[in-house]
Amino acid sequence: MRIVRFSTGDESPQFGVLASRRDQPSELVVAELDGGPYDGIALNGRTHAFADVRLLAPTLPTKVVAIGKNYADHAAEMGGDVPAVPIVFLKPSTSVTGPGQDIEYPGISDEVGYEGELAVVIGRMCRDVPAERVPEVIFGYTCANDVTARDLQRSEGQWGRAKGMDTFCPLGPWIETELDPSDLALTTTVNGELRQSGRTSQMVRGITELVVHVTAAMTLLPGDVILTGTPAGVGPLQVGDEVAVTVEGIGTLTNRVIKRG
């Protein structure tokens, strides 16, 4: 099931289910949900043609918990080994933006880059989750771009500003709830040119281990997101670029880069 968050005209954002029309399977529709998706999928009877809606970030997390250097090839290209324990950092909710929305290149950085990732969306409040119960707390998966001001990351040591700026966490285009995330192709392109190509099976630490590790430290709430790391091939973005992250079984998250005004 594909869960979208969308707007139509001046109406408030809604959650919905993306599906094919029964009478014309080649056409997509969005069936509105009665409220949010995390307490159960309840349709309210209203539908919209997919072409008439504007997709938004598919979740509104209270926090985005990100994992650094979780692919060995990426750790190597960053000049280091895989860390002995997962590196955990936070991106604020204000960094989240949606598919088709702009990534703003800030004036305080001269080296903004992309990091395509698989994102885990949490479906229920949880803490201290044992490995065998991890599937119970995962709602689904989406594509993510852990946009980073690489020069600030190097100079400041702490990654809060480098990775937490407004628009530095594109998510989307939707949440896929029925997916085996263990071995999915993940690619990133810039202006149509392939820059990253990896598989989720190359993660040093899998999703179960990451959820256990994160929830041993903090409570996760419905809609919160865990970013699972990026494969090798990270690089710079320039104003005017179009960056697209594709995860097999989910879809493609596309954003353009503009100058922050």
Automatic annotation (TrEMBL):
**For this chain's UniProt record, which GO biological process terms are given?**
carboxylic acid metabolic process
Domain Rv2993c-like N-terminal, by residue range, is: 1-58
GO MF annotation: an example: acetylpyruvate hydrolase activity
Keywords, A to Z, come to: Hydrolase, Metal-binding
Q: Which SUPFAM superfamilies match?
A: FAH
For whether the record's keyword set contains Hydrolase, the answer is yes
Where's the Fumarylacetoacetase-like C-terminal domain? 63-257
Keyword Mitochondrion annotated = no
Q: So which domain of life are we looking at? A: Bacteria
Question: Record's Gene3D superfamilies?
Answer: FAH (2.30.30.370), Fumarylacetoacetase-like, C-terminal domain (3.90.850.10)
- Name by which UniProt lists this protein: Fumarylacetoacetate hydrolase family protein
Q: Source species, please?
A: Yinghuangia soli
